[in-house]
């Protein structure tokens, strides 16, 4: 029997190119939105001049982003499993394009962040459906042996998109935060066009699904959560991810104020944008290493070491007010966090059948945003009481402890294959 021909290099596969191309443009736009929303709050609070008001508004903006996930993700995954994943992504990005361009008009008409938060809530409601669909569709269009590389390249697209924050910071500081949001609306439409180019057929399990009813739907939701709780590799992946998301919550509240106060008269979005881009550079190196030399090492070891490195970066960030130290710390955080985003994505895809992927990734989104909310809430309470530096040290300690826990949890897991794959 003739040997099976190896799959084509990923960057020569039509479907993967369409997926990663759309994600690169869309993620670049999303990073502009993050910078623009911070710029809106920076303007509204007069450069975060009031500690309590600034912490509250940053926390509320985070709630507007998290609440849709907390409300809908536990149930959205089962719905995504029943639908054409490509169609879910196209509809979600089309809606996001319309919503994001309404934010500047809404603020200019009301001069209030409350209606803006409602639009942010709607924007992230679309994410509730888009994100699990994107994670679930990847194994359907990529050969199994190339899945880790595909996730590394998709993560790389996110990192490359992060570089757009430098441009976004310049746009916000020189043109205003509104134009950045208009640019993001265009990027979502470009993503829609790219997604439409994917040749995709729904998985075969769709034909075997039970008829739609409340009882069947609730059974499917419960089945997905039971799978998440009972599969060790899924538990390990989600535990590592949880630490990074919680740390992100601390950075959202305490980190932003730490940067702006240290900048003094130079406060603005350009410095924040440079630091976000520096995190992206560190993440690029971390992602490259995971998919090359990292293939020879146990995944739980890589996850544990990555979390400890990220914690060390937070310590450097917390104890200094010098921008050069901030940049070095951002590089270290990105380097350590990269494996915690690439490896768990692959572990969840490999450890889940196609008929359950939407539910598993919906559960992932719910749990991670819950941890982000927890980090934001603790930081929102702690920052006015103990200061930004001490609050960031608390986050670093938590992340380091989870790094040790990840190593302990995964000691018996076999090392991944070191077989090379072609880009």
What does this molecule look like?
With 423 residues, this protein is mainly alpha-helical. The chain has a single domain, classed as Growth Hormone, Chain: A, CATH 1.20.1250. The protein is built from 15 helices and no strands. Helix 10 packs parallel to helix 12 (299-318) and helix 10 packs antiparallel against helix 15 (388-409). The longest helix has 32 residues, at 51-82. It starts with 13 loop residues before the first helix and ends in a 14-residue tail after the last helix.
Low-confidence stretches: 416-422
Number of strands: 0
Structural class: mainly alpha
Percent range of helical residues: over 70%
* Principal-axes shape call: globular
Query: Could you say what the CATH architecture is?
Result: Up-down Bundle
Give me the CATH superfamily: MFS general substrate transporter like domains
Instruction: Round the mean pLDDT to the nearest integer and report it.
Output: 79
Distance between the termini: 27 Å
Query: What is the class in the CATH system?
Result: Mainly Alpha
Q: Give helix and strand order, one letter per element, not per position.
A: HHHHHHHHHHHHHHH
């Amino acid at each position: 029997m003739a040997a099976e021909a190896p799959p084509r290099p990923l960057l020569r596969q039509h479907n993967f190119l369409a997926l990663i191309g759309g994600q690169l443009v869309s993620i670049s736009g999303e990073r502009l939105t993050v910078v623009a929303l911070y710029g809106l709050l920076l303007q509204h609070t007069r450069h975060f001049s009031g500690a309590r008001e600034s912490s509250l508004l940053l926390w509320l903006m985070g709630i507007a982003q998290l609440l849709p996930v907390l409300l809908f993700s536990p149930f959205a995954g089962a719905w995504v499993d029943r639908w054409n994943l490509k169609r879910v992504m196209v509809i979600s990005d089309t809606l996001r394009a319309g919503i994001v361009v309404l934010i500047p008009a809404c603020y200019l008409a009301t001069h209030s962040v409350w209606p803006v938060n409602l639009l942010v809530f709607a924007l992230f409601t679309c994410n509730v459906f888009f994100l699990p669909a994107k994670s679930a569709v990847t194994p359907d269009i990529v050969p199994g042996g190339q899945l880790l590389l595909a996730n590394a390249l998709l993560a790389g697209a996110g990192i490359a998109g992060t570089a757009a924050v430098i441009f976004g910071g310049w746009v916000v500081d020189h043109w205003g935060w509104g134009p950045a949001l208009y640019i993001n609306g265009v990027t979502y439409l470009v993503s829609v066009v790219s997604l439409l180019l994917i040749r995709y057929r729904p998985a075969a399990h769709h034909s075997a699904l039970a008829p739609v009813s409340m009882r069947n739907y609730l059974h499917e939701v419960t089945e997905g959560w039971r799978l998440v709780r009972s599969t060790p590799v899924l538990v390990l992946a989600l535990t590592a991810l949880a630490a990074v998301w919680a740390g992100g919550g601390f950075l959202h509240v305490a980190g932003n104020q730490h940067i702006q106060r240290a900048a003094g008269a130079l406060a603005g979005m350009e410095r924040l944008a440079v630091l976000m881009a520096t995190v992206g550079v560190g993440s690029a190196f971390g992602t490259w290493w995971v998919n090359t030399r990292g293939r020879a090492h146990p995944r739980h070891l890589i996850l544990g070491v990555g979390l400890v490195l990220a914690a060390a970066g937070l310590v450097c960030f917390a104890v200094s007010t010098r921008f050069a130290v901030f940049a070095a710390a951002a590089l270290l955080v990105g380097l350590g966090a990269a494996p915690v985003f690439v490896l768990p994505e692959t572990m969840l895809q490999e450890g889940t059948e196609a008929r359950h992927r939407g539910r598993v990734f919906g559960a992932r989104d719910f749990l991670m945003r819950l941890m982000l909310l927890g980090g934001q809430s603790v930081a929102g309470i702690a920052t006015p009481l103990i200061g930004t530096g001490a609050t960031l040290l608390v986050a670093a300690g938590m992340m380091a402890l989870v790094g040790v826990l990840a190593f302990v949890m995964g000691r018996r897991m076999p090392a991944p294959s070191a077989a090379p794959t072609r880009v």
